[in-house]
Amino acid sequence: MCGIVGAVCERDVYAILIEGLKRLEYRGYDSAGLSLLNNGNITTQKTIGKVVDLENLFGESLPSGTVGIAHTRWATHGVPSSINSHPHTSGPISVVHNGIIENHSELRKEITEQGIKFSSNTDSEVIAHLINLNVCTSNSLREAATKALSRLDGAYAICVISTDDPGKIIGARSGSPLVVGLGIGENFMASDQMALRQVTDRFVYLEEGDVAEVTKEDFSIFNQNGVLVERDVTQINELDQSSEKGEYKHFMEKEIYEQPKAIINTLDGRLSGDDVLNNIFGLGSSEIFKKVKRIQIVACGTSLHAGRVAANWFSSISELPTQIDYASEYRYRNPHVDEDSLFVTISQSGETADTLAGLRYAKGKNYLSSLCICNVPTSSLARETDYSIFTNAGPEIGVASTKAFTTQLVALMLLALSLAKSRGRNPKLRARVVAALRALPEILLESLKLRDTIVEIAPDIATKDNALFLGRGIFYPIAKEGALKLKEISYIHAEAYPAGELKHGPLALIDEDIPVIAMAPDSEIAEKLVSNLEEVKARGGILYVFSDPSISMEIESGKLIKMPKCDFLLTPIIYTIPLQILSYEVALLRGTDIDQPRNLAKSVTVE
Ligand code: M6R
């Protein structure tokens, strides 16, 4: 959620830090700050607001400093304010921190009793003071930091600089990601390699408990036992176009239009003839899948909705039962794990704290194996899971998940097919679905052409305070996704219901002030759905129905929008597109901050 950047160079690092923060800003954005080490002094500047507000503090005169750390914050402990912004300082020490220190209250009490005054209300400030308190009994900044870290409960990624030990940055991670970026005669640190793509394409990913010491010429990494270790250097080859909006007004808009290409990338190298290739989830996965008797899915937000759609596919294609949980709930319900259950996590970022905690909890249970559907191959989730498939959607910057969702659905369909193949189930159905997957990107392009129609209905919805989304069966999770998207970026309250549930309560809400958005594909319960929608009409409701061309319905108030034809099993993917566009157009009319909606962060790395 928050973002960290650090740099140690021959040249001034200010511009590198600012550019890095801007690239991370989508993760958290209520305040920002930086510390620069210059001629043995540290200068720290912090402000509430965005990175541009931090830049404005400096005006035209760019500050000097060849070592620096910077942070963009999404408040967890202590309100957004310049005092609570990072870096936090103590004596010669300056620290930036991502994560949450759970025992901060007792540490604060202990530190205060030693006569030290706190300047902020954050949990993070204890780290600066603890390191400072350990300086006099340590031989180096790294030793002082390591001693301090041993006192912390919770999650952290930190970067530390000190006037006593200039020319280096100490970084450490436990529960929050941190990466070392390697330059020539200069090195960097960041909570996400994306922050450093303008300066390097070579990275070393720290593992849990690692402490790194980085100078401009060199770096060394010590594991959780303090032993000097070698970690692989990863070269990132993909072209970095992620930070450019190009012809688009917002990243969300760009990412909506990237979906046909993103899905081609998800499918690339994973199909052969009329079936899925073996072992696309990793070597040995096809063998393991033969044994699977049950699936447990754990995810959050949009990723959870993808899992809910997939549960239907696992049942109908792979003939397997699925249990699905919010990641934040899963480990607190004392789950019973049946023999030969496969534990599946779904996450765009692969850094969502609850999903990661779910995986770590599951590792202590008797699962057959773990598998993740993820967009970031270098993420913690990907590294800690037995088997994985990457959605290859490219970086998603908009907080509202779009291409990550549809590519997750495609990857989950590949999982349903792979499980069915290993278990010898439904070969004809598999061939049908594979053909439909190959045709999907073209149909998605058709779906995107609905934008003009959606632009016409957006003003009706933009003026309302509430909206209701309806779908049945496999479309109920899509209704939930549509509602999430609308509330997230337009701040309109939106709810989703299975249409058959209306008469059990929500029908009481229906009047001309609550638009009802429904999905009516050509399914075996299409007629029943139409009856549910007639109930809405009869009560004066305004209906916007995305429907299969075969469905006929008279709509006087609202609109019937015909969707392109597609294999029923893949219709959830096609029908998602107009819901994304609708929320985007409504948010545009309401003038909200579409890519960085209030109170939210792209990657939720705290529980
Ligand atoms: O990175 P993840 O997929 O694990 O993120 C999970 C949710 O935080 C995320 O899907 C969130 O709900 C989206 N912002 C919704 O658009």
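^ 5-amino-5-deoxy-1-O-phosphono-D-mannitol complex. The pocket of 5-amino-5-deoxy-1-O-phosphono-D-mannitol is lined by residues 300-303, 347-349, 352, 355, 399-401, 484, 488, 603-604 (CB under 6 Å). The mean pLDDT is 93.
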